Hints:
2 copies of one chain form a homodimer.
Chain A: H1 11-29, H2 36-43, H3 47-54, H4 57-85, H5 90-103, H6 111-117, H7 126-144, H8 148-167, H9 178-188, H10 192-202
The first copy, chain A, binds a DNA duplex (18 and 18 nucleotides) through residues 4-6, 8-11, 14, 35-37, 45-49, 51-52, 56-57.
Amino acid sequence: xxxxxxxxxxxxERREQILEAAAxxxxxxxxxxxxxxxxxxxxxxxxxxxxxxxxxxxxLFGEVVERAGLRLQEVFRAAIADANERGLGIREKRDHLGRxxxxxxxxxxVLLPLMQSFLLGHDPVLGPKVRSVFVEIYQGLRDxxxxxxxxxxxxxxxxxxxxxxxxxxxxxxxxxxxxxRELLDMACGSKVRVVLDxxxxxx
Amino acid sequence: xxxxxxxxxxxxERREQILEAAAxxxxxxxxxxxxxxxxxxxxxxxxxxxxxxxxxxxxLFGEVVERAGLRLQEVFRAAIADANERGLGIREKRDHLGRxxxxxxxxxxVLLPLMQSFLLGHDPVLGPKVRSVFVEIYQGLRDxxxxxxxxxxxxxxxxxxxxxxxxxxxxxxxxxxxxxRELLDMACGSKVRVVLDxxxxxx
DNA sequence: GTCTATAAGTGGATAGAC
DNA sequence: GTCTATCCACTTATAGAC
Lengths: 203, 203
């Protein structure tokens, strides 16, 4: 299974690979259930190397969350700029942001680890970071995106619904359960395909 | 710390105590991070007894989720009946359901374990149960509550937002962070107090 | 009905070689 | 820069006494 003797590459580059692998593994299994060995295998290196590179599993997850938060903001900013260029109204802009959001399910490296992190409020170390990321996202939507307080809240609500549909793997029922299909169709709009494909890719 | 020699009570009653303790422990730490020993201590008995009573940690969690799903439906039905008696319109009925929903944070035995379960879609054993509970809740809102497909979707979205606010423990920032406060106020409406008190009780 | 003792397994982290 | 070997703590589950 495991590839012995991974090729020798710069630490910075290896770091990126591990972060990417970790984002997927943590996103799928959650912080507690994921093991550093699963991350290592996904990255094609040994378990101790993962720990050595980041100091601890906890620190690795912290970085994953940090990155995911930044990436999300980045994508939002790009979508906002695009919407502004096209002179979209507030309504269209919001939908535009929504589609950009759903596109992020692809790869599973942003939305899923973020959602997993939102369940760690109780953690003494990760909790504070999680809350700060959450609040920053809210402020970004409210101020930078110009959705306003209620608009940001609404956007967040639909985002959380989508996240939950993903983490419960409801797409697995799409073909068998009409209610699941209906809910997915309504929650994802024209982007259902993206979600279904992402789920299929993971399975 | 641990109370040795718990008093001898009927199995059925003990079962309830364990389920209640488990709902809180699982709700706070999540399935993977929670230990059967933490459940045992919360219930005031020994760890092996917890396992013996339910066969395994996995089965215990399954029952917790099952119960939480049923309890939620029960509360919805009561709220629907009440709304119908009072002849409330669709808008008011939905808000009435929303308030009944938030009241469930009290005790932490329903919303939190349910939310935690929604992150386990990937689990081969618990995943299917989680999806079935999710879909049943959706159908209950759509048909029994009469919210219709889109109404149920919207209700679910705000529910998931509230769940996420709770699991990330955003209430901890209520007094220090204006943005967190604003978001909580908007998401919970007149029921913020309930949420803040529940968070304080847990801490 | 409930406990103590403990087996068996898992996983994060450290040491040190190459 | 990366691995192998390994330690140690923790956790679930079982056995059997009371």
